[in-house]
Amino acid sequence: MNNYLIPANSKKSLMFFGMFTLGDLILFGVGATISMILLFALNIDSLLFAILAITPGVICAFLILPIPNYHNVRTIIRLAWNFYTTRQKYIWRGWCYKDGEERDKE
Known about the structure:
Blueprint: H1 22-41, H2 47-63, H3 73-85, H4 100-105
């Protein structure tokens, strides 16, 4: 009968902490590092400079935020960009057995 049972979370074993790829961790590490450098380099006496200093880390954390049905926010942004910037070709396969071109010839 050859029925195979594949667990739903089989891909999670390939990820760090069960939800992050190496690219996600590198992205977050770079953002956090830039934020730490800005915190040490800027004079953060005002709220504006403090917000500017932590912005790279917050943006990178938002991009790797896991969400249901997709890997993370970065995946949704990439898929939306590909959808709106590439030519979409939809092939009609309806309930008619003949396409429009063949029908017009009759």
